[in-house]
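Limitations

Structures in this collection are predictions, not experimental determinations, and the ligand pose is part of the prediction. Treat each record accordingly. The example that follows, with cytidine-5'-monophosphate as the small molecule, is included so readers can see exactly what is and is not provided: the inputs are given verbatim, and the output is the predicted complex.
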Amino acid sequence: MELTSLHSRSTFAGKRVLLGVTGGIAAYKAAVLLREFQKLGATVQVVMTEQAQQFVGSMTFAALTNMPVRTSLNDEQAELSMGHIELARWADVFIIAPASANTIAKLAYGIADNLLTTIALASEKPLFVAPAMNQKMWAHTATQENIATLRQRGIAIIGPGNGEQACGDVGSGRMSEPEEIVATIAAQMSADVIQAPELSGSNAEHLPLLGKKVMLTAGPTREPIDPVRYISNHSSGRMGYALAEQFALVGAEVTLVSGPVCLQPPAGVTKVSINSAEQLLAAVMAQISEQDIFVSVAAVADYRPATVAEQKMKKNPAAINSAEKQNLQIELTENPDILRTVSGLMHDRPFCVGFAAETEKVVEHARNKLLNKRLDMICANQVGSEQIGFGDKPNALEVLWQDGSTSIAMTDKTDLARQLVPVITERYCATITS
Ligand code: C5P
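Predicted complex:
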């Protein structure tokens, strides 16, 4: 996660953060999260559910905040000073971390049977939810439907992460790390992404991509020759993964269809793994009608072997016994152009962004591709030299659309993605409102 603390500091300095803590072992991480907000200059008020107090005592949070922790709707004294409605108004931002499956379900159905869920119903402030639960509970259809409901309502879901869980299971459901939660909120609230002068009102107003579905393709494809050999290319997947992360940070629901690469999918991103161009096409088309934006970063092989040998191909015996070199010919057939297939859709065509890696005449070739592939936008980069292009090398982009263009100067891929997502967002918003 690469977001400068300066960026987060300017977001949180002087802000009032309402931190809701629900029942789960990750409740102890809420204390670290609280400290992170405080370090960035925010004032934090904690609200705990009854279950949360079984995991961490309210004294911990009271000592860290120097303020009484609010735990009950029926606390006469507390309601006299700052009632639940005032608390909802007081906050600039409301974050529930960890958010249990139970609380998520209550939020989805508008149940207000404790202080935390009552405030959630009374609050108009941006709400961020960091789920934490056992991987089976997270994967359960009920939870997934509730999460989808919250997303549709413009509530930002942060994580959960993948990995080993307190219960011994391995999978998705771990609460995102506190630094990641802070960085995600900072990115979503940041002026350079959303150009909102001040936070007020609902999430949807300030986060144009919140809840929007973005699909990206990334990495190389592998085109099999036989069961052990393939044709591929040097793509590392870094550009696509960096973009997927930035889209997730601004609240989009991101699906990353990825060829084989050595990268972990970013938090909150759904990854679909493929090998060949034909598998890539099938994975993309299975979900494309639901997508708002399609960003094709994958380096798809233009050709594949016309036939795939069932067994490992043997060297020609003549080649073994002969001093003379023997040539082997493999017939190639053209692969489908996935981006062109998507951009050519008559119904439910998403906003289409292509990438063009060129070794010469970058802008000229890219403009031709923009027209030929009927794209909304194309990002062109120079490849082929030692210093720029593939892998973790820096790159520069020329971004073109029908009646405009912009350049992003040479920088690393995380920074490129950070600068490119607002450009795509702006063009996407201009397209859907025109
Ligand atoms: O035509 P060219 O391969 O240069 O176009 C590059 C763009 O088209 C990229 O966005 C790439 O992901 C996409 N593409 C594709 N399917 C192919 C070839 C390229 O989606 N078979």
